[in-house]
Write a structure and sequence with these properties.
There is one protein chain. By secondary structure, the chain is an alpha+beta fold. The protein has one domain: Nucleoside Triphosphate Pyrophosphohydrolase (Alpha-Beta Complex), CATH 3.90.79.10. It has 2 helices and 9 strands; from the N terminus they run ββββββαβββα. Strands 1, 2, 3, 4, 5, 6, 7, 8 and 9 form a 9-stranded mixed beta sheet that branches. A hairpin with a 4-residue loop joins strand 7 and strand 8. It is globular and about 35 Å long. The mean pLDDT is 95.
């Protein structure tokens, strides 16, 4: 694992990844899912940001963080109805919003490889082992979140 804080190419900074009880999770604007199969983590290539990252996205009005994670996972990958385990809260300093922000992190452990379906947001999928180096083109922040929460 990398030492925190960790910065990406845009200047966003991952400050912390903390384990908290889901009941103690403060309101968060977004959630991601660390999908694990055979020790590897699912990454999608985001069309807008042009990088490999975890599936996830912004909360919609009235949605819980868990509902956001399930909806975004289904929309971005085609994975439906899997058990999600709350894993952590990640804290960021974001450049484009000029503020600190929290992100809910969920985990889904799959016994079999899922059938993946691309959405309009993604250009591809890959499985990455956190034992491998973070490659150019990967979000180092998402890779670090995955490494810290995959088990």
């Amino acid at each position: 694992m990398a030492e925190l804080p960790l910065c990406d190419r845009a200047g966003n900074v991952l400050l912390a990844v903390r384990g908290v009880a889901e009941t103690d999770l403060p309101p968060v604007p977004a959630a991601v899912v660390v999908v694990v199969h055979a020790g590897a983590v699912l990454l999608m290539f985001d069309k807008r940001r042009r990088q490999w990252e975890l599936p996830g996205g912004m909360r919609e009005p009235g949605e819980s963080a868990r509902e956001t994670a399930a909806r975004e996972l289904a929309e971005e990958t085609g994975i439906h109805g899997v058990a999600l385990t709350f894993a952590a809260v990640a804290e960021f300093d974001l450049v484009d919003r000029g503020r600190r922000e929290l992100l809910a992190v969920y985990r889904a452990e799959l016994a079999t490889a899922p059938r993946l379906t691309l959405s309009e947001e993604g250009l591809g999928f890959r499985w990455w082992s956190p034992r491998e180096p973070v490659e150019t083109g990967m979000s180092p922040l998402d890779a670090e979140i995955a490494a810290r929460t995959r088990t």
